[in-house]
Amino acid sequence: MLAKIKEHILQVWLLMRSLRARIFLIILIVGIVPSILLRYGILDNYEERAVDLRQNTVQNQLRILADHLISKNYLENYHLSDAQTAVTKEVINAELEMLSNLYDGRVLIIDSSFKVVKDTYGISEGKNIISEEVIKCFKGESTFNYDRENGYIEMTTPIVVNKTSLVKGVMLTSISNANIVDTMEVLKHKAIILETLMIIVIVTMAMVLSLAMTRPFNRVTEAIKEVKEGYRDEAISVPDYLETIHIVDAFNQLLHRMKLLDESRQEFVANVSHELKTPLTSMKVLAESLITQDSTPSELYREFMEDIVSEIDRENQIITDLLALVKMDKKAQKMNIVPININDLTELILKRLRPIARKKDVEVVFESNRTVVAEVDEVKLTLVMSNLVDNAIKYNREHGWVKVTLDADHQFFTFTVSDSGIGIPEGSLSQIYERFYRVDKSHSREIGGTGLGLAITKNAVLMHRGSITVTSTEGEGTTFRVKIPLKLVAQLSRENL
Ligand code: ADP
Question: Which CATH number fits domain 22-183: 3.30.720.120, 3.30.450.20, 1.10.357.10, 3.40.50.720?
Answer without folding.
Answer: 3.30.450.20
